[in-house]
From TrEMBL:
Name of the protein: Universal stress protein
Family: Belongs to the universal stress protein A family.
Pfam families cross-referenced by the UniProt entry: Usp (PF00582)
Top-level taxon: Archaea
Organism: Natronomonas aquatica
Length: 139
């Protein structure tokens, strides 16, 4: 039985569908929504903005706020409670480092822009191949 689920969520429609799937497939599980800030991109992206911010923690919280608000709304629609967590780093590494504490990981099939996927590689594929626990990839 799956009792702990890690949902890797971003600010996309796919991220929302990923959480909806996890809540429907595992309604009785403890669900943690993980948002990763500062992953590499072709232009530096969030990592550059974080490095230049006066208050690093506040800047990461600001980036995650909208994602977590959306996640809480989705959880409320499913009459579920979730835990939220924001981490800084490369998405694949962060997700894999957290995966051991869960029974399964749920991740969206297409996250990030096309340029990010070409430059960085497909996060879902790398997590799927390397995860120490089962992974569900939502399409």
């Amino acid at each position: 039985m799956i009792s702990r689920v890690l949902v890797a969520m971003d600010d996309s429609e796919m991220g929302e569908r990923t959480l909806e799937y996890a809540l429907e497939a595992h309604p009785d599980a403890e669900t943690t929504v993980l948002y990763v800030v500062g992953g590499p991109s072709t232009m530096g992206g969030q990592a550059t903005g974080l490095a230049l911010s006066a208050d690093f923690e506040e800047a990461t919280d600001d980036l995650a706020r909208e994602v977590f608000e959306s996640a809480r709304e989705i959880a409320a629609e499913h009459d579920a409670e979730i835990t939220t967590e924001v981490q800084v780093g490369h998405p694949v590494r962060v997700i894999l480092n957290r995966a051991d504490a869960y029974d399964t990981v749920v991740i969206g099939a297409h996250t990030g822009s096309v340029a990010d996927r070409l430059f960085v590689g497909n996060v879902a594929e790398k997590v799927f191949r390397r995860s120490p626990v089962p992974v569900t990839v939502v399409r």
